Amino acid sequence: MSSRRALHFVFKVGDRTELVRFFRDVLGITFLRHEEFEEGCKASCNGPYDGKWSKTMVGYGPEDNHFVFELTYNYGIGTYKQGNDFRGITVCNGPAIRNAKDKNWPATQEGNVTVVEAPGGYRFRLVEEGIIGAVDPVQKVTLSCSNIQKSVEYWSNICGMKQYSREGNTALLGFADDQCKLELEDIGEKVEHGTAFGRIAFSCPRSELPDIEKKAKEAGETILTPLVSLDTPGKATVEVVILADPDGHEICFVGDEAFRELSKFDPKADELLNEAIAADKSDEWFAKKGQEKATA
Fold first, then answer.
1. Which residues lie across from 30 on neighbouring strands?
2. Which residues pair with 54 in a beta bridge?
3. Largest Cα–Cα distance in the chain?
């Protein structure tokens, strides 16, 4: 459905400073906006945590026409356990490949693909040539599934995605030729999410949100968060519905009109993030107590 857009993927961040360094120095990504929150999100945007947290949006261009990444940092949590659910993000960016080499960032070569791992264990697959028709450097998000046919039917019928290709144990889906795609990979076993589980977000006209929720309910699929409004102080209020696919991958659909207002680029994003990192004394506090931050 061309009226729907692939928006972002959410990463939980244990070491914010190091992850920021990876995105800046290796991937060469721009910081688009940064927000601090005193309590947990009622749609669990930061995971199942109630305390102070921050959200940083990063990408290769404005959120209106680029797939970006949401970095959620929960103060007091240092590490998250990885599962087998997240296979990686494919990025078409030659300079990032050279940055990894120049910065001596650990990398492995898989044919023409350079694989680097961000702090926290998140894999990025860097390529020189991307998917035909794609204009965004972020080409695809690859997630695990346990039954490729069942997953393709879910993402096609419930989420309204078009299937672009199907080969062996993988399928490529998306909303439009020029958008970031979703790749599903059948791993032949149960998908385990760990505590580092992410969330993929899409937008649609606000009027379509009730229909998405209704379709999931009638099909007996999981609705994690029924249609709800989320407030960001000083910014637009957005409405979301959050689903889970057959393997438990979290899917957020947000009303496009309000999200475009909320997601406008903030030229002070870098400054706000740097200030937040400088003001974060949580590592020092735990060190003085002879303790380590919690492992989620």
1. 59
2. 36, 73
3. 54
User: Nearest 5 degrees, angle CA 208-CA 214-CA 216?
Assistant: 105
pTM: 0.93
User: What is residue 161's DSSP assignment?
Assistant: P
DSSP bridge partners of 34: 56
Report the alpha-carbon distance of residue 245 to residue 248 in Å, rounded: 5
**Token duo for residue 124:** 């990025």
Task: List the chain pLDDT tens, one digit each, 296 residues.
Answer: 579 999 999 999 999 999 999 999 999 999 999 999 988 887 778 888 888 999 999 999 999 999 999 999 999 898 999 999 999 999 999 999 999 999 999 999 999 999 999 999 999 999 988 666 667 899 999 999 999 999 999 999 999 999 999 999 999 999 999 999 999 999 999 999 999 999 999 999 999 999 999 999 999 999 999 999 988 777 888 999 999 999 999 999 999 999 999 999 999 999 999 999 999 877 665 666 566 667 77
What SS3 class is residue 249? coil
